[in-house]
């Protein structure tokens, strides 16, 4: 069933688990995630970045993800990831997304609050949820690129003000993770996470979670993270699946025989994440 992000995250916060938000760009990715969600009996968030929407078309992504949600026996939210453009956000809402992210993290606090507030006002008026972000997460996620030297962690006092002023339903924070492939082991600032949790009631979101150790993820969930974003590891699984066919059966030319194993590889990683995040068995 299709639900809003708010409903999914309220249950997660009450239950002390996190729900996986997985980036989708094509049909095989949507199907892999949904097969995992059904098998694991897990609520799930299908999200698309602006880059994903540019690649596949907002109408195609919305149609596929909404169909997946309507057919599913588990709760599914259809979410815009890292929206930076007001018109694009409105387009997603018109196309049937159930929630949007406005990423104003590149702006000073007051401007970020102002931009985010505007999106919250409009989205809440039509029953959609909103994720905001404060602090700059390093690395590259499609259209959003932040140099490691420009990455800044979320300040707990500013976080309290941001949550109160904007009224967001989900709050993305920067505590040491980054988008893309990590060079070394990422170090998460758990003290900061605790301080933010004490200052803010809004469900918290961890971006850049691909490649973060299982122990660190478990600790982050214990300390109040309710939504965890995974994109890079899905891309890697997809590519691994394609490579295995191309290398082992070089004469294969049927796309279904190449993409089928990629879909299986993605399903496996998504299932493992659902078990790790604690959302498996919660639907
Ligand atoms: O918004 C999407 C996620 O933050 C992706 O993070 O590159 O670690 O998979 P990732
Ligand atoms: Zn992200």
Strand % is 15-25%
Mean pLDDT: 96
Shape: globular
Structural class, from helix and strand content? alpha/beta
Task: Describe the main β-sheet briefly.
Answer: 8 strands, parallel, barrel
- Helix fraction, binned, reads 40-55%
The gyration radius over C-alpha positions equals 18 Å
Q: Find the CATH superfamily.
A: Aldolase class I
In the CATH hierarchy, the architecture is: Alpha-Beta Barrel
Strand elements, count: 11
Distance between the termini: 11 Å
The structural domain count equals 1
> In which order are the strands of the major sheet placed?
1-2-3-4-5-8-10-11
Low-confidence stretches: none
Order of helices and strands: HEHEHHEHEHEEEHEEHEHEHH
Structure description:
This protein has helices at 5-15, 27-40, 50-56, 58-71, 86-94, 109-125, 156-166, 190-199, 214-222, 232-248, 255-277, and strands at 19-23, 44-49, 76-83, 99-102, 129-134, 138-141, 144-146, 170-173, 178-179, 204-206, 225-230. Strands 1-2-3-4-5-8-10-11 form an 8-stranded parallel barrel, surrounded by 10 helices. The model has no long low-confidence stretch (mean pLDDT 96). It contains 11 helices and 11 strands. It has a single domain (5-277), classed as Aldolase class I (TIM Barrel, Alpha-Beta Barrel). By secondary structure, the protein is α/β, with parallel strands linked by helices. Helix 3 (50-56) crosses helix 4 and helix 6 packs parallel to helix 7 (156-166). The termini are close together. Glyceraldehyde-3-phosphate (G3H) binds at residues 23, 81-82, 141, 179-180, 207-210, 229-233. Glyceraldehyde-3-phosphate (G3H) binds next to strand 3, strand 11 and helix 10.
